[in-house]
Amino acid sequence: EERGTFEYFGWVYHLGVNSIGHEFCDLRFLFIRGKYVEMYKRDPHENPGIKPIRRGVVGHTLMVEELGRRKVNHGDVYVLRFYNRLDESKKGEIACASAGEARKWMEAFDHAKQQAEYELSRGGSTRNKLNMETEITLEGRPHRVRRYAHGLKKLIRIGQGPETLLRQSSNLSANVRSDGYFEGDAGDAIEAHEWKCVRTVNGVRIFEDVANSESGKGALVKAVGVVDASADTVFEVVMNIDRRQRYEWDILTGDLELVESLDGHFDVVYGTYDPRYLTRWYSKRDFVFSRHWFRGQDGTYTILQLPAVHKKQPPKSGYRRSKVNPSSWEIRNLNTPLASNTVRCLVTQTLEMHSVGWRRWKNNQSSKFENTIPYALLSRVSGLKEYIGAKPSLTFESSTTVVRSNISDVSSSNGEYEDAEVADEFYDAIAADSSSEDDNSDSDKERDSKNSKVKLKNVSWAIAGLALRRTSDANKELDPSVPQIILDPSHFHGSLRQGKDESATNCWTSPSGTGFMIRGKTYLKDNCKVTGGDPLLKLLAVDWFKVENSITKVALHPRSLVQSEAGKKLPFILIINLEVPARPNYNLVLYYAADRHVNKNSLLGKFVDGTDMFRDSRFKLIPSIAEGYWMVKRAVGTKACLLGKAVACKYLRQDNFLEIDVDIGSSSVARSVIGLVLGYVTSIVVDLAILIEAKEEAELPEYILGTVRLNRVRLDSAVPLEV
């Protein structure tokens, strides 16, 4: 069938360095149609016949990375970095005026890459395949365009909207989803928290973690409220340190100034406040705290705030230095009815405290808790809710301008591109990772048009049946005509020992999949997820290496389990090599084995012997911090992550094994999160589940490939490995 083509267009900033070493930031109009991308100096809709200054195709080896916020000419922009995963010297950057626009452009390039993969999978001509793989170096910029960068500081003022001259908001779709389906609101791993609502203040619910309070180590509480705006908008408001805006909703941290911005996802701020707003007879206070933020693949924003010390902000005369409670923000879009134009998000602020008056206050008894810093922090959710509710401009969601057609008036058709011999990949590395197959998008839209509402069904009776059938469904992934062999982990040894029970430390175990939520048989109809069953593959051993530089192709190393005599006799081995960036670097290598050969016609068979594009779009990991500091739990989260979309993955298929090298350091967000985890690694228990994402009805229900529990691993126990 002839597939329709999505078109995305809007204004972005092109960042780079010119031939004489000067940095530039040019306003450019970007147009994406199918897999083809064009860059213009002016809007081609308003200037018919204008020629693009850059043009090319999106290739399957290109990656997109969200670098976060950056200060450019006294204004904040959100930067996207594009690079070739096979040659990182080929790279480039664009910037957007808001985090929401950056997210939408990532989705746009995601669709462009899916289109390229679809055409490649349909068996296009050899010439077209070569065209997709041929790249040009487009560093620097053409001459005589400096006038577009002049006065930039007047253009990129966050929150000013499309009325600012030349600062035109991107006309991108907020409705086009990257994979055609929406995930459930809850995480994909079962958390140990037991939240109980203890009070409701100004329409905001106040919860306490009952399980944590019983330990006697203070209280872990959170404020939860629904805000009538998108998660992108709320994130912008929370991160903005403009005093006039914060005075309208923040009673504690209204006076903030930026001390240092370490990267696009981490900064340090200094603030002051007058305690007379809370109580009397106290001197003025000041504080320093760090902010670490990132956006998940489901669009949820997480902001971690921790007290900090900075040499640029020593204690001031006349101020008493206060320690702000460790806290976190979670801002998540809510699913609304398809016919509704309203946008809402759920805002959660979590903090830990040791306030004596808390227990009296939650029981509606008189106490001094309302005059404390923790209460002021919890009150910010209700202040945020009222502030945004009183600002119609913040709740307004611009209409989308996405055209789905066969031929566009302002861009060439596919045939014209082919005749023009377009053999260049656009802008050095402009692309995005695939999170779904294009085959699904058409059927999704057809299904949405027939069903104007999402029907929620009582499927409790079906879940029990699915739990019984899940094991038999997963067994179809392996060859039923071959007898099973017995897999005994005692015959295989890695550098990290296997734990005998849950109390052991610096070891690994393989838990069942019941702690993880995966897609059920009816997921495409009702988005129902079910608890996982026993893993299909058995975890035989774990290696914990310390290396100067992260290594790949571990399976070919003489010390690898794969090269042992016992390993060579196994029907199939899946090796997950997690490259952990640190000083020194670490490699965590997981060896999973099947007791039979893989069924080549199964989903696992397609994954094992498929293309890297297919693997990137399906390889999924679900993380969970089973035990540990709550701030680390918030940073890691429990949502499933398509690793091929988040970080660079390389695959090695030989003999009886498939190795997946996961470069965690290829993403600035992943680097910062793993840095936080390593700081607490000796006191946390990490659970991981790996699986192949099911996107078609015949592939459901999902099954868990393998699990691992890392129990309080010590960094100094890593074994040096010579390359």
Which tags fit this structure?
723 residues, alpha+beta, PH-domain like, 10-stranded mixed β-sheet, 8-stranded antiparallel β-sheet, 31 strands
User: In total, how many beta strands?
Assistant: 31
Estimate what percentage of residues fall within beta strands. Answer: 25-35%
Overall tally of structural domains: 3
Q: Which structural class fits the helix and strand makeup?
A: alpha+beta
- The first-to-last residue Cα distance is 50 Å
- Uncertain parts: 129-139, 143-185, 398-472
How is this fold's topology laid out?
Elements: E1 5-17, E2 23-33, E3 36-40, E4 54-57, E5 62-72, E6 75-84, E7 87-96, H1 99-121, H2 126-133, E8 195-201, E9 204-209, H3 210-213, E10 219-227, H4 231-239, H5 243-246, E11 255-263, E12 266-273, E13 285-295, E14 301-307, E15 320-321, E16 327-333, E17 345-353, H6 358-362, H7 373-389, H8 392-395, E18 403-405, H9 414-419, H10 438-450, H11 460-475, E19 507-509, E20 517-519, H12 523-526, E21 529-531, E22 538-547, H13 565-568, E23 572-580, E24 585-594, H14 603-609, H15 612-618, E25 619-627, H16 630-636, E26 641-642, H17 643-646, E27 648-654, E28 657-663, H18 668-679, E29 685-692, E30 704-711, E31 719-720
Parallel strand pairs: 13-15, 22-31, 23-28
Antiparallel strand pairs: 1-2, 1-7, 1-18, 2-3, 3-4, 5-6, 6-7, 8-9, 9-10, 10-17, 11-12, 12-13, 13-14, 14-16, 16-17, 19-30, 20-21, 22-24, 23-24, 25-26, 25-29, 27-28, 29-30
